[in-house]
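Quick one from the shared queue. A colleague (R.T.) flagged PGG domain-containing protein as missing a structural entry in our internal table.

Convert sequence to structure tokens.
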Amino acid sequence: MSGDDHRRQAVPDDGRDDVREIPVSDGSSAEHKEWLKEVRGWLVVLATLAASVTYQAGQNPPSGVWQHSSGHLASNPVLHDGKFVRRYLTFYYFNATAFATSLVIIILLLNERFYKSEAKVAALTLTTMVDPMSLVGAYIAGSTRDMANSIYIIVLTCFLFVCVVYIARYVVLTCFLFVCVVYIARYVVQGWLLLTEHMKKRVEAAKERERKEGKQRERDKHAKTRRSRCFSCNCCACCRAFEYDDIESRGLPKTEDN
């Protein structure tokens, strides 16, 4: 009987303490096995994808291969024969490492008994870490020829890795808060959010105040436009009409001169 399904407990027997093995159902062990099974499936999928990508990149390296033998060897990588031979070698070794580690991960995950030993689990963890690092190194070496761009990609990858690890710890809480915010925003837009009468009155008063201020600004703007017209002289009826309009807009009493 395995240790996961049994626990050793002291059971009194005729006045003496006799240690027996009693089967105890362990829910956490079942959950752990289910989690391992799920993680194992995801790792197999990712390792298969990485193996496919690295195999294709090895057959068709960056910049392609020479199609003719005039001055070059046909099917030889173009990047290898140029001045960026170190870049090609870096890409080659990183890509080969990623391809090999992907195959190793797939083979190790096929055996369910592999998780029984801590040393084997540590080896799997190390291999899983080497695989994405090799993929990033191959991408950097094959996608750019500038050292500044390479450093930028390295820094960006490290930053995103830290962000993903940090967010994963609080992903449940983050998703819950996001869903709550979405639902509350929907209710607010549709007008279903419960409001008190005092809050409604304050909102209506604010809207009314905004309408009055808008009308006042329109009147002031219109009056300023009329005052800017020329009505300094009384040579014609048109000028006096402008003057009367200005007096009325400002609320001044009319005089005999006006």
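The longest strand covers residues 6-13.
Strands lie at 6-13, 16-23.
Added to the table.
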